[in-house]
Amino acid sequence: MALDILFENAKIVDGTGAPRFDGAVGVEDGRIRLISRKREPNASATDHVDVDGMVVAPGFIDTHSHSDLQLFADPTLAPKLRQGITTEILGHDGFSMAPISDDQIDKWRTQVRGLTGSVDVEWAWNSIGEYLDAVATNGAAVNLASLVGHGTVRFAVLGMDDREPTATERGEMEDLVARSLAEGAVGLSVGLIYPPSSYAKTKELTALAGRAAAEGRPFVPYIRSEGRWIWNALDELVEIGAEAGVACHLTHFKMAGAKQHGKAERGIHLIEAARERGVDITVEQYPYAAASTKLSTVLPPWVHAKGRGELLDTLRDDDARARMKRDVEAWRIEGWENFGALAGWDRIVITNVPSDENAHLEGTTVATFARDRDREPIDAVCDLLIEEELGVSMVLHLLAESDLEEILAYEAVNIATDGLFGGTPHPRVYGAFPRVLGRYVREKNVLSLEDAVRKMTSLPARAMGFDTKGIVRPEMDADLVVFDPDLVGSPATYENPKRRPRGVAHVVVNGEFAVRDGEVTGNTPGEVIRQ
User: Fold this and answer.
1) Which residue from 12, 3, 1 is spatially nearest to 38, judged by alpha carbons?
2) Tens digit of pLDDT for each residue in 474-508?
3) Tens of pLDDT along 409-455?
4) Which fold has domain 60-289+402-460?
5) How far apart are CA 467 and CA 482, in angstroms?
6) Beta strands of 376-473 (E only): which ranges?
7) d(CA 26, CA 49)
8) May I ask the CATH architecture of the domain 2-53?
9) 2-53 and 60-289+402-460, same CATH topology
10) Which of 211, 318, 413, 457 is 20 to 30 Å from the Cα of 507, by its Cα?
11) Domain boundaries along the sequence of the chain
């Protein structure tokens, strides 16, 4: 057998959760062709790589990525690649890059800036199929797939209106979802803390989830609350899953805010009870006690609707600001994830500010920069969002480490980054997967090495319906990561989030080195995955 690459003297962790074993892995023509129990099999290869006892595992699958536009600026996606990530899922939280009409592009670009960053890219697509074509033409080092976003679909039909769709409008939304799935979207995402998705009722979501179910694709929700209203939000998820008969992949499951700390077991029991009654639910988590999203999310839902004009005009209105302050202080809107009250302004940190004039605010809490400007926190937030045309991100410190570890150990949970690029980002952009292998496997023994790798490979592949990824087995895709289990980890911190991970030696995507000896090769062997 003439192989392209033969990894010799390896410890093979195959992604199934089975015990590791010594052997060798051979790759040829983008596929795994050889798995041997011999450390140095008698096999011919163009490139013999002695990994000297390091682990060879399936490439990691990031089920929650926000690289939708970043990939056009940096096709290597180096911060992800260096973690061992070989496949990313785009289009999360209801914010896919299509379907969108020409006359809506500029407005939608503003809506997504806090999640996608301020990447200057020509928006030359309208449909999911055209977006995926653009991604394929651009090229990338990792494999890329996209969900279709409920928020995008709703915006395409209703704009930012806070109302229920008519029967005709709902039919248009269902058609857009069905068309996007036919063009290759791997599922349907929804972000129920983000307008316009947050304006949708359960009935609307169930109807659209039914379209995903009909194609055997997952429904991927960011539920309405992970804090004060989490139990209602989980009940809604189970209702949608049961009614639509759709597989659900719960994104970044967490217990947010001090009042929910210590209740991870209750949340797991609720999910497990749903699974036992036949609702297919898998779960995703990032391994940090802080969240990250766009700063505009601290504003009440009504601010984002266009009742009194466009969003930026609303932010300039003194009466609107007074109402915002009352809503935040009184927590008066049922179901609203009130981050200002939930985390507290002193625990919300600005992470990405596009302009040079305000770049000094990165790493500063809202409480601090409001005090420096001699403004109330809501006024300071509104001012900054106006100045930066909404393109500001934040980190929120609102989770408990004990809950994180309990959720991480749950069998149905896989690992993801949910990383936002730009500025001084959350360290998960650079370190989520190595952090699990270093901190939670080697140092804290929360997981075995085999189970951690399963949560990074075969479990997310199963959730997303990828039949040829996630396991080291002959004829599977040759997406592989080689790491030193005694060294792997992430030194990235909230203060210094861009530090490279340790211990990841090689990353192979579709049989080609994307990282070799710890360095990004510049190769772009990634493929677009269309279901």
Assistant:
1) 12
2) 999 999 999 999 999 999 999 999 999 999 999 99
3) 999 999 999 999 999 999 999 999 999 999 999 999 999 999 999 99
4) TIM Barrel (3.20.20)
5) 22
6) 393-397, 413-415
7) 10
8) Roll (2.30)
9) no
10) 413
11) 2-53, 60-289+402-460, 294-397
